[in-house]
Amino acid sequence: MKLFDGLLITLGMYTIVPVPQRSWTERGMRWTMAWLPFVGLIIGGGWLLILWLNLSGFVGSYLSSALLTLWPIIITGGLHIDGLADAADAIGSRRDRETKLRIMKDPTSGPSAILWTVSILLIQLMAWLELLNLWSVDDTILFGRDELGSIALLLLIPCISRIMAGLGVMLLPPARRNGLVKTFRDGLAPAVLPLLIVMAAFVAAGCLLLNLPIGLAALITAMICFVSWLAICSRGFGGVTGDLAGFLIVVSETALLVVVSIFIYLMTSLGGSI
Questions:
Q1: Cα distances (angstroms) measured from residue 135 to each of 52, 68, 100, 173, 211
Q2: Domain that holds residue 203
Q3: Residue ranges of the alpha helices (H) in the chain?
Q4: Cα torsion at 52, 58, 63, 68 (round to 10°)?
Q5: Of 92, 159, 170, 211, which one has the greatest count of Cβ atoms within 10 A?
Q6: Pairwise CA distance, residues 263 & 274, whole Å
Q7: What phi and psi, each to the nearest 5 degrees, are found at residue 174?
């Protein structure tokens, strides 16, 4: 029951899904980070519905691309894109650690926040549009095993990004002594970290089984994003914050989407199976 309460709290914290307040117990809070990848599955499920509507001819490619781009922002209430903007301003300032932390708490958006946010959304929009245009050419796209594998792999991207964010919060020290991340992490159950590692292993295996070349490219991209983010957090901030976790989620999802779309494009252009 406490584990299920953790799911409800996670949905209440990281999505706009309404949950009963009675589930917000201290014991339930201990398992919230373990349920974070489940939010990724919800996003992936929304993507699947939009893709089906497009590939079935109910919605055009342009509108579908916009919906695919906006769906993660809508279901999360803009939580992670806000973290991206705050972290981008702090990183772009190139100031000392304490100044960066103060900048992240500033409610106003600077030029780096605007540049990063617009660039990320534009890249995601174009990547989805490229994929939908590719798939619209081939009427048999949904009937091949490899094609289904590449689509299923795309739907795992939000799950991968949230597993990395969860691992980052567990592995790095909080950047603020009295910040929300410290309060939140100190209350987590000890089993959360092993659970996230097991999830990471299963998702990695799933990526490789679904489509070996694209899955391998996605995993390498994810590792590059994660290691780079760890370095940014450690050297620039002395630890992790919620905004930095949101930054990782949005940037890694964008990078994975771009890499997967490029590989699908190349393999389709070469006449191979995707």
A1: 11, 15, 43, 44, 17
A2: 36-269
A3: 2-14, 26-29, 32-55, 61-75, 79-93, 97-105, 111-137, 145-155, 157-171, 180-186, 192-210, 212-232, 242-269
A4: -10
A5: 211
A6: 8
A7: -65, 140
Domain count, the chain: 1
Query: Phi then psi for 273, rounded to 5 degrees?
Result: -80, 140
186 pLDDT tier (thresholds 50, 70, 90): confident
Interval 80-99: pLDDT, tens: 999 999 999 999 998 999 99
- The secondary structure element, H or E, covering residue 237 is none
User: Residue 209, CB half-sphere, CA atoms under 13 Å: how many?
Assistant: 7
Is 274 part of any domain? no
Position 145 confidence tier, pLDDT thresholds 50, 70, 90 = low
Give the rounded percent of residues in the chain with a pLDDT score beyond 90: 69
CA–CA separation, 228 vs 153, rounded Å?
A: 23
